[in-house]
Predict the structure of 4-hydroxy-3-methylbut-2-en-1-yl diphosphate synthase (flavodoxin).
Amino acid sequence: MSSLHSIRPWRQIDRRKSRQIMVGNVPVGGDAPITVQTMTNTDSSDVAATVAQVQACAEAGADIVRVSTPDESSTKALREVVKESPVPIVADIHFHYKRAIEAAEAGAACLRINPGNIGDATRVREVIKAAKDHGCSIRIGVNAGSLEKHLLDKYAEPCPEAMIESGMDHIRILQDNDFHEFKISCKASDVFLAAAAYQGLAEITDAPIHLGITEAGGLTSGTIKSAIGLGNLLWSGIGDTIRVSLSADPVEEVKVGYEILKSLGLRHRGVNIISCPSCARQGFDVIKTVEALEKRLEHIKTPMSLSIIGCVVNGPGEALMTDVGFTGGGAGSGMVYLAGKQSHKLSNDQMVEHIVEQVEKRASLIEAEMAADAAE
Ligand code: SF4
């Protein structure tokens, strides 16, 4: 990380101590970075379409991708998907224990399954044996919308207590079968319900926690809901892996997931653009410039910051804290800042090309610095 972003005590989040499990080759929990997940929405038996979507999500930064496997043709296709995927694949199973066994055999890194929903103890044992034999972890996925009937009868409605009890019942089944490679989620579309259930669970289990606000909505509303729900939990240290659920392209879910983590300093990837909303004082078209730069800089994976500020009111101050900065001045030109220092004047019409060049250069320098730090 560039020295411009050194850790300050008031920026640090103390993460809840969870035990670590592996999802394929990706650690989840403990001191592992918080991972970003998404889920494909292709027909899972269509290998080419599913692989293409998994790859696009991985390219956007997804650490783990979930694929729904509701029938035999999709568990068959899963074998090919797993082979082609650059990231571990979680198979999403709901009720059928055979799909879980097939998915484990097909190479799924993790099964999303609620052991209490798949039938009698023999079936549960068979699924757990398949998971053990094939090195799969399991995610228990409690959802406020599909709580067990006896819990709804007991609590009258979905509530944090019912969700926590459901989660602990499923955990007990796995533990009774000597299976410990599991993580847990307890999602709800209501942020208060989800947050209370997650907080309760976090206190009574050390299992890694998969965070999500389910059925959060479309791109804008779902992003806001997720940022509030997940942001609140992450800020209090809860959460080892996240999935943002949007009625949108899964690639967008990955981008939003990263933005949430980046805002809290929990993960760093790519260019963090700091830009002003613009007003009559702007020395250039801030909105169009930022839109162009967001597209042109998508290929940068190095964690770094760029400030694009319309005028000298806030520009120089922001530029002091970013790796590359541009502040609008007037008369068709502005000032470029590099590594927090004023560097040179630049004409507005060359701005996008020149800034892309400067960001690429700076990214190489930061990469070299990080490699040198790692070698020490
Ligand atoms: S930084 Fe300047 S241009 Fe941007 S919103 Fe503030 S006053 Fe307006």
